[in-house]
Amino acid sequence: MLKFFAFVQVAADSLRRREEGQTMAEYGVVLAVITIGVLVALTALSGGISGALDRVTGILP
């Protein structure tokens, strides 16, 4: 996981140093990183989300 964050930091630094616009490939990489981050967050929180939904469905008639 540490290597992933190092990769993201290097990619962000290289994007900041350049003055020309981003290409479609770079937008794709950014979208992939965001998607992976969301999936990791949802996986980590899945137990809490499931428990909250179970409590809500238990309250409803």
List the helices and strands and how they pair.
Layout: H1 2-17, H2 24-59
Task: Describe, in plain words, how this protein is organized in 3D.
By secondary structure, this protein is an all-alpha fold. It has one domain. The chain is 85% helix and 0% strand. The protein starts with a helix and ends with a helix. The model has no long low-confidence stretch (mean pLDDT 83).
Q: Which descriptors would you attach to this protein?
A:
single chain, 61 residues
N- to C-terminal distance? 44 Å
* Derived structural class: mainly alpha
- SSE sequence, one letter per element: HH
Could you estimate the helical fraction of the residues in percent? over 70%
Q: Judging from the principal axes of the Cα atoms, what is the shape?
A: elongated
Count of discrete alpha- or pi-helical segments spanning 4 or more residues: 2
Tally of discrete structural domains: 1
Report mean pLDDT, rounded to a whole number.
83
Query: Major sheet: size, sense and barrel closure?
Result: none
Task: Report the radius of gyration as a whole number of Å.
Answer: 18 Å
Low-confidence stretches: none
Percent in strands: under 5%
Would you count the extended β strands for me?
Answer: 0
Write a brief structural summary.
This protein has 61 residues and is mostly helical. It has helices spanning 2-17, 24-59.
